[in-house]
Design brief:
142 residues; mainly beta; Metal Binding Protein, Guanine Nucleotide Exchange Factor, Chain A; seven-stranded mixed beta sheet; four-stranded mixed beta sheet; 2 helices
Length: 142
C-alpha cells in the first residue's frame, strides 16, 4: 500500500510503502508536550520504506528536545511536522504523522495512546530500531 502524505503547504512530502498491506494502521498518540501541542499521531511500518521529499530544504527545520535522539522535521512555512527521524548506529529510522496522510480511509487508523515518559535513551533507541521504518530516503525536489 502506497501512502502519500505532506505538510499543510506541501513543502515536505512523503510516500510510505506499507508492505505487506495492512488490515489496520496502528497509530500512536504521543503524550509528550511537543506532540500534544502539534497533534502528532505517529505510525510506522518496520517492513516498509519511506521516501521523503523536501521541496525547499532551507525551509525545513530539524527540531530536537528532551533526549535529543529524534529530529522532528518541521516545515518553517506552515509549521507542520510530518516526519520524525532518529539516527541509530549510522542508520536513519523514521515515523510519519498520520494527520498528514492523503487518501487513506480514516477507518484504517487505529489510535492508541503512547507514553514514553521515563524511558531511558538506550531503551528508546532500541524500541525505535525494532518498530520504526528502517528504509528511509530523502530527496530534494529540483
Amino acid at each position: 500500500m502506497q501512502i502519500p502524505g505532506r505538510c499543510h503547504c506541501g513543502n515536505i512530502s512523503f510516500t510510505l510503502d506499507w508492505s505487506p498491506e495492512p488490515a489496520a494502521i496502528p497509530a500512536r498518540a504521543c503524550s509528550c508536550s511537543f506532540c500534544q501541542r502539534h497533534g502528532g499521531v505517529w505510525a510506522s511500518c518496520p517492513t516498509g520504506s519511506l521516501q521523503v521529499t523536501l521541496h525547499d530544504p532551507e525551509r525545513v527545520h530539524a527540531y530536537e528536545f528532551g533526549t535529543k535522539t529524534a529530529q522532528f522535521h518541521v516545515c518553517s512555512i506552515c509549521g507542520v511536522p510530518p516526519v520524525v527521524t532518529s539516527r541509530i548506529e549510522g542508520q536513519v529510522y523514521a515515523v510519519v504523522n498520520v494527520n498528514c496522510f492523503e487518501g487513506v480511509d480514516p477507518a484504517l487508523i487505529q489510535l492508541q495512546a503512547a507514553d514514553f515518559e521515563g524511558e531511558q535513551a538506550a531503551q528508546r533507541l532500541a524500541r525505535r530500531k525494532r518498530g520504526w521504518i528502517a528504509k528511509v530516503s530523502f530527496l530534494q525536489s529540483p
